[in-house]
């Protein structure tokens, strides 16, 4: 078989190689260096065309004057004007990509992209939409968690809330939605970009003055109970923060989170409760969260004993279900924890103590991760023709030792 | 003709005819006629009862899941509230083993006596407060026939004694080399990982 003569067709198929220019070519066309190449300017070409073509001179001149006027008028605002939203391809693409309801206009979506730091005017920034969206997100996430897992300890609920609707998750969502950031906010930027004033590099990020209503807030050494966090702190169990803007800027994470909250608020305002709830289910609840990984027990065996005493079950007993290699270097024990004849949990470990602790952890998780059948949340009563409300399961609460 | 050709080829150029190195190493574990029956017997494991031909008239599903840790989202039937439908179903109540026959984790479970009176507890506190060096937790536990944990639940050593104990511990730990220190820290970290199920 003959070899392919690659040289024959490589010049036509492959990318053209740099061609050395001969003297005659240089003489005729002159030499052009990169420094002398002028950038392509559409406006200049248009201006040149006006002088060549005198018939369309008036309209084109008027158009140029109008364009420059609008550009100047755009520059005098801190955020893009409302008319610019219709022209932005990015905005239309984002609207379509998120499958937002058609009742939500692109102008509102454009407003949701303007942060408080970019435009201080509350009529043009997303602060009000974000406040509404934040409340909705917290409410829907809380009712879902509490109704689905009625026995979860409060600390786990806080962690799960942070995982569902925390700022880090919202920022990740904005990134997944393909929202890009403008380098600097201004009236001339594309309204499809997220506009906010960034924190100056090297500046101290203030955590914001605490505006907690806790009466003993000044005593830093005092212990803050988990129960008091329900009253005094935010939905993630963190202390409430005042406006913590350092030198009038926000971080990318904060701005992205505000945008996602604002979208939620905008959907609620324009398309109603049902659409907002659907949006929450499709974008927030659909994110996988393994709640069993959020637990951290310090003394699981003791907690389980207290739990069984509280619920008046028989005292839990650890029994070896199976084992292998007890006298070897890598033994494996499978220990079950039984209350009476019922197995509460099972764990495997390299020592009897480890297996017993793991079994106790499994038993406690089995208790805390109980989920009723056919869970209904209170907001499902807002649907038309909803069935009569049946009270959800309410638990005694977590084990306190 | 073919046989004569094969004899012409040098034997060493055909390595696949030679026994490989791993084979010669594993020679001791090779199954011979003498050990065949023993190997066969060891491999003869009784199949699960659900594999045997069914005696039921109606069709049913054979479910033999691979051995794995139980799912924590599967709530034990004892933990189900009384109004849950799953509590009454027969699926959740499958007691296959008798718990009393299983061996315990500890050799002997300590019997709980509940024999100490409030006056005894007062005496424990007095002894520990007045002479903490003599009356340590273990000694008190031995005298009052209870566990050291119970002594710790009832009373606490005086601050001076605790300070002395902390200094003793510090002196002991100062003699540890890097290996022992790291091993102890690793053990602590592993222990904490159990609670996270990591």
TrEMBL record, chain A:
One Gene Ontology molecular-function label: structural constituent of ribosome
Q: Which GO terms describe its cellular component?
A: mitochondrion
- Compartment(s): Mitochondrion
Top-level taxon of origin:
Eukaryota
**GO biological process, alphabetically ordered:** RNA processing
Which keywords belong to this entry?
Mitochondrion, Ribonucleoprotein, Ribosomal protein, RNA-binding
Main localization (coarse): mitochondrion
Q: Where is the RNase III domain?
A: 91-272
Q: CDD domains from the entry?
A: DSRM_MRPL3_like (cd19873), RIBOc (cd00593)
Family in the record: Belongs to the ribonuclease III family. Mitochondrion-specific ribosomal protein mL44 subfamily.
The identity of this protein, by name, is Large ribosomal subunit protein mL44
TrEMBL record, chain B:
Give the UniProt entry's GO cellular component terms: mitochondrial large ribosomal subunit
Compositionally skewed regions (Basic and acidic residues) per UniProt: 183-198
Which molecular function term from Gene Ontology is one that the record holds? Answer: structural constituent of ribosome
Q: Where is this region: Disordered?
A: 178-198
Q: What residue ranges are annotated as transmembrane?
A: none
- Fetch the InterPro entries from UniProt: Ribosomal_mL58
User: What Pfam family is a match for this entry?
Assistant: MRP-L20
Q: Which branch of life, at top level?
A: Eukaryota
- Name under which the protein is recorded: Ribosomal protein L20
Its lineage opens with: Eukaryota, Fungi, Dikarya, Ascomycota, Pezizomycotina
């Amino acid at each position: 078989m003959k070899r392919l003569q690659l040289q024959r067709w490589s010049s036509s198929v492959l990318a053209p190689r740099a061609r050395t220019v001969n003297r005659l070519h240089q003489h005729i066309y002159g030499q052009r260096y990169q420094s002398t190449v002028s950038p392509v300017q559409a406006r200049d070409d248009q201006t040149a065309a006006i002088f060549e073509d005198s018939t369309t001179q008036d309209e084109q001149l008027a158009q140029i004057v109008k364009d420059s006027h609008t550009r100047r008028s755009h520059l005098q605002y801190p955020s893009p004007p409302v008319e610019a939203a219709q022209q932005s391809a990015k905005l239309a693409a984002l609207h379509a990509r998120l499958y937002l309801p058609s009742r939500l206009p692109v102008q509102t979506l454009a407003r949701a992209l303007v942060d408080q730091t970019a435009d201080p005017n509350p009529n043009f920034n997303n602060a009000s939409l974000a406040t509404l969206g934040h409340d909705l997100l917290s409410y829907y996430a809380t009712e879902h968690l509490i109704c689905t897992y009625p026995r979860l300890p409060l600390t786990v609920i806080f962690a799960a809330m942070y995982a569902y609707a925390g700022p880090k998750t919202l920022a990740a969502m904005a990134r997944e939605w393909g929202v890009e950031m403008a380098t600097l906010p201004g009236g001339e930027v594309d309204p499809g970009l997220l506009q906010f004033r960034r924190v100056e590099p090297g500046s101290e990020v203030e955590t914001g003055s605490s505006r907690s209503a806790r009466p003993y807030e000044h005593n830093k050494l005092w212990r803050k109970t988990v129960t008091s966090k329900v009253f005094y702190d935010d939905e993630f169990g963190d202390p409430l923060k005042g406006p913590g803007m350092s030198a009038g800027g926000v971080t990318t994470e904060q701005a992205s989170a505000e945008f996602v909250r604002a979208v939620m608020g905008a959907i609620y305002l324009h398309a109603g409760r049902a659409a907002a709830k659907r949006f929450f289910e499709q974008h927030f609840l659909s994110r996988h969260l393994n709640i069993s990984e959020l637990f951290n027990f310090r003394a699981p065996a003791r907690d389980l004993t207290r739990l069984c005493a509280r619920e008046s079950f028989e005292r839990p007993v650890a029994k070896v279900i199976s084992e292998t290699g007890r006298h070897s270097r890598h033994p494996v024990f499978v220990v079950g924890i039984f209350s009476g004849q019922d197995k509460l949990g099972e764990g495997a470990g390299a020592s009897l103590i480890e297996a017993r602790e793991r079994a106790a952890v499994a038993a406690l998780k089995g208790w805390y991760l109980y989920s009723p059948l056919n869970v209904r949340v209170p907001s499902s009563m807002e649907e038309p023709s909803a069935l009569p409300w049946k009270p959800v399961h309410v638990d005694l609460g977590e084990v306190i030792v | 003709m073919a046989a004569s050709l094969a004899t012409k080829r040098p034997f060493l150029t055909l390595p696949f005819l030679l026994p490989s190195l791993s084979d010669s190493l594993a020679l001791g574990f090779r199954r011979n006629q003498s050990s065949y029956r023993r190997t066969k017997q060891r491999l003869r494991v009784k199949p699960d009862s659900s594999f045997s031909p069914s005696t039921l008239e109606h069709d049913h599903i054979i479910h033999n899941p691979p051995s794995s840790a139980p799912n924590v989202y599967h709530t034990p039937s004892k933990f189900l509230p009384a109004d849950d439908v799953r509590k009454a179903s027969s699926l959740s109540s499958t007691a296959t083993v008798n718990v009393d026959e299983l061996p315990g984790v500890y050799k002997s479970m300590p019997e709980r006596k509940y024999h100490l009176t409030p006056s005894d507890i007062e005496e424990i506190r007095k002894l520990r407060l007045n002479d903490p060096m003599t009356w340590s937790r273990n000694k008190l536990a031995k005298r009052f026939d209870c566990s050291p944990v119970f002594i710790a639940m009832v009373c606490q050593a005086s601050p001076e004694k605790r300070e002395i104990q902390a200094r003793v511990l510090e002196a002991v730990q100062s003699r540890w080399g890097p290996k022992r220190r790291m091993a102890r820290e690793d053990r602590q970290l592993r222990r904490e990982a159990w609670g996270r199920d990591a």
